[in-house]
Write a structure and sequence with these properties.
The chain is of the alpha+beta class. The chain is built from 18 helices and 32 strands. It has 3 domains: 226 residues, putative glycoside hydrolase family protein from bacillus halodurans (Beta-galactosidase, Chain A, domain 5), CATH 2.70.98; 301 residues, Glycosyltransferase (Alpha/alpha barrel); 66 residues. Strand 7 and strand 8 form a beta hairpin. The N terminus is likely disordered. Keywords: Hydrolase, Signal.
Length: 784
């Protein structure tokens, strides 16, 4: 939806609510936030894609529009990208590398960028785009005389429901996508017999054809788009079975027809021939036929029950309540429009759980990881290709996974990192003559790892190193040594690349990356290209530290541990600039940069997601990071606002954090369906928002669990249950009058920790499996 229209809509909504009295200050209700509040709901069908409601099982996705006369189910399958297996490593890059480094150290940054663009980018220098399957369209007839319309998405059940009344008949449509049975299911019912009639067919922008195999079966078959002038290698199939109870089923030219039925159940399966980034030998026809045969043989209630149980086993692990006002009773789109003017803490809770819902929907074990659009995309050429942008966006997608008790959902990301440790080894050898592996600021379905787009954006060698932080976090929360042994070669390989490619800065004597950049930020010399940006140093410092810890825990690789320990001590340190800010570059360029309000805050990686900078541990650096945030400003793109929420939460500034959260929840950055508006839609803002709210309530690092570190005065009382802390802890937290009323701590591993609330510190030692309750008595945390 265009921004101008949304501003006009906001003015209209505020004016209407003022006339109706809705905008008067809301009174808190005694009713707590509950499962009844875990619904997005609307009084009209979706018109725009960003009004439709998302369903997903990690692999299959659908956007449900909820039309009365015509239902649109826009479909995605997570391996439908353009192109075919390819390796873009550019051998000319290695020849140019010494001259690129010399130009940078001589201060000839624009010349270095030109040489990078001409000689160092991958061949091809563009990656492939994520693509839609198309749409499954159900046509019911005229929409006249309909009333009582409601469409909703129940986050607790992962079910979309549409209800309305037409010509004296109440119709209901339920749609879900089952991870258990790997199919989309839609059931259409009426409260009078013989009243369900429809036509079902496909629409797609792909090169595809439709085959009607009988009155119950219709199939869309197609191929993916080309890349770099070459045909795509993927074949896809979307197969549908329509089962009517009563009535008559027949066929049209390219559609299935049902007339006079009591109810209709539609099953859809989709697949491609993709098996891995180097194997496209799969059989989508065999896959979809088997899935449909199995699912359509089960009773609808059994399918639905199994789906709900599977979803709730993940979603139900965490509950959250920030309080509730009467605005929680309004339709979701109206709440978003009014969010800047009214007190609606339940909207923040809904957004929080929506983020968890979306991650469950777009990242499951065995699927592709969440991309820039998660799973949901209506185009052949998605915004920014719908790829994996790993200079912040892919990482942000997974920030809430560990702390909000969804660790399994990180498995697709871990699997992708394993893949790019293989393809990235080729890039490291060909373009740097280095051991180990590297990837730059983007990757795709085919796990391309060379720098792409332009030198200004693509010449950043630290993407893989940042991804390794997620591999380490998976260990740090669960402490599984078998898993650590599995990922250690990946950590080692990422470290080994920097052992071979870090160079001594002739001006400072420190070891730095060169060439590199602080992602997408132009320094005063007209480009992003530089040596040793602060973010690189922080990321590599984490990578080396975690590789060292893993080596110590596994009692292996002592010589390599010693080598990177010494090298880590030679990395360029964080620096504080003339404005009191944390410097983004080795030189104090921040205040002369092209955009001091830039969306990226790359040099603050050390504050979040890293823990190198903390208010209590490194107060001077924390103050400098705060100054950098103040200079940058709060208002930015959706994901950048979400990053700022996490950063301000780490600084313990609850009210400032909440004010930025309100920017994220407003109609300029949240679409009617609560997708994040970059704009256009990028899902990382949703996940970053969930992560930021978690950081406001609970932080865990350096063997501490910090309670309510950035609680805003807007949430004086509330509760959250099921959060996870590093070291195998589960935390339930109730607060009242801005202080912990009850803290329930469960240890699954028997590790030691320290509870922290403000200046109060309490060491805790629980046995494996032990649960303990604590409260704040006004002076100290005490065990009950």
């Amino acid at each position: 939806m265009p921004q101008l229209n949304r501003r006009d809509a906001l003015k209209t909504a505020v004016a209407f609510s003022a006339l109706s009295g809705v905008s008067l200050p809301a009174k808190a209700q005694t009713k707590a936030f509950s499962n009844d509040d875990l619904k997005l709901w609307y009084k009209t069908p979706a018109v725009e894609w960003t009004e439709a409601l998302p369903l997903g099982n990690g692999r299959l996705g659908a956007m449900v529009f909820g039309g009365v006369a015509r239902e649109r189910l826009q479909l995605n399958e997570d391996t439908i990208y353009a192109g075919a297996p390819y390796q873009p490593a550019n051998p000319e890059g290695l020849i140019a590398l010494p001259e690129i480094r010399k130009l940078i150290f001589d201060g000839k940054y624009l010349d270095a960028e030109t040489l990078i663009h001409n000689k160092f980018l991958g061949t091809p220098n563009r990656q492939v785009s994520y693509q839609t399957v198309g749409e499954l369209v159900l046509t019911f007839g005229p929409s006249t005389n309909s009333s009582g319309y409601r469409r909703e998405l129940d986050l607790n059940r992962a079910v979309s429901t549409v209800t309305y009344r037409q010509d004296g008949v109440t119709y209901k449509r339920e749609t879900f996508i089952s991870a258990v049975d790997q199919v989309l299911v839609t059931r259409i019912t009426a409260d009078k017999p013989g009243k369900v009639s429809l036509q079902l067919g496909f629409e797609t922008p792909q090169v595809a054809s439709v085959t009607v195999e009988g009155p119950q079966d219709i199939v869309l078959t197609g191929k993916n788009g080309p890349h770099n002038g070459k045909d795509g290698a993927l074949r896809f199939e979307s197969r549908v079975k329509v089962l009517a109870q009563g009535g008559k089923q027949s066929t049209g030219l390219d559609e299935v027809l049902v007339s006079g039925a009591d109810s209709v159940t539609v099953f859809m399966a989709a697949a491609t021939n993709y098996k891995s980034y180097k194997d496209v030998s799969g059989d989508p026809t065999a896959i979809t036929k088997a899935q449909l045969a199995a699912a359509s043989g089960k009773a609808y209630d059994a399918l639905l029950s199994a789906h709900i149980a599977d979803h709730q086993a993940l979603f139900g692990r965490v509950s959250v309540d920030f309080g509730r006002t009467e605005f929680a009773d309004l339709p979701t789109n109206e709440r978003v429009l009014l969010s800047q003017k009214q007190n609606d803490p339940a909207l923040a809770a809904l957004y929080y759980q929506y983020g968890r819902y979306l991650l469950i929907g777009c990242s499951r074990p065995g699927t592709q990881p969440a991309n820039l659009q998660g799973l949901w995309n209506e185009k052949l050429n998605a915004p920014w290709g719908g790829k994996y942008t790993i200079n912040i966006n892919t990482e942000m997608n997974y920030w809430p996974a560990e702390p909000t008790a969804l660790p399994e959902l990180v498995e697709p990301l871990i699997a992708m990192v394993k893949d790019i440790s293989e393809t990235g080894a080729v890039t490291a050898k060909v373009q740097y003559n280095a051991r180990g592996w590297v990837t730059h600021h983007n990757t795709d379905l085919w796990r391309a790892t060379a720098p792409i787009d332009k030198g200004f954006y693509g010449m950043w060698p630290s993407g893989g190193a940042w991804l390794c932080l997620h591999l380490w976090d998976r260990y740090d929360y669960g402490r599984d040594k078998a898993y650590l042994k599995e990922i250690y070669p990946i950590l080692r390989g990422a470290s080994l690349f920097f052992v071979d490619t870090l160079v001594k800065d002739p001006h400072t004597g420190y070891m730095v990356t060169c060439p590199s950049m602080s992602p997408e930020a132009k320094h005063p010399f007209g480009t992003s290209i530089c040596a040793g940006p602060t973010m690189d140093m922080q990321i590599i410092r984490d990578l080396f530290a975690n590789t060292i810890k893993a080596s110590e825990i596994l009692k292996t690789d002592a010589a390599f541990r010693k080598e990177i320990t010494a090298l880590r001590g030679k990395l360029a340190p964080n620096k504080i600039g003339k404005a009191g800010q944390l410097q983004e570059w080795q030189d104090d360029w921040d205040m002369e940069a092209a955009d001091i309000h830039h969306r990226h805050v790359s040099h603050l990686y050390g504050l979040f997601p890293s823990t190198q900078i903390t208010p209590r541990g490194t107060p001077e650096l924390a103050a400098a990071a705060r100054k950098s945030l103040e200079i940058r400003g709060d208002l930015s793109t959706g994901w950048a606002i979400a990053w700022r929420i996490n950063l301000w939460a780490r600084l313990g500034q609850g009210d400032r954090t909440h004010s930025i959260l309100k920017l994220l929840l407003g109609p300029e950055r949240t679409y009617p369906n609560m997708f994040d508006a970059h704009p256009p839609f990028q899902i990382d803002g949703n996940f970053g928002g969930t992560s930021g709210m978690t950081e406001m309530l609970l932080q865990s690092y350096n063997d501490e669990i910090i309670l309510l570190p950035a609680l805003p005065t807007a949430w004086p009382q509330g509760k959250v249950t099921g959060l996870k802390a590093r070291g195998g802890f589960t935390v339930d937290l109730h607060w009242k009058d801005m202080t912990p009323e009850t803290v329930i701590l469960t240890s699954t591993l028997g590790e030691k920790t320290t509870l922290v609330f403000g200046q109060v510190v309490l060491p805790v030692a629980l046995k494996k499996g032990e649960t303990a309750t604590f409260r704040y008595d006004g002076k100290a945390l005490v065990r009950v």
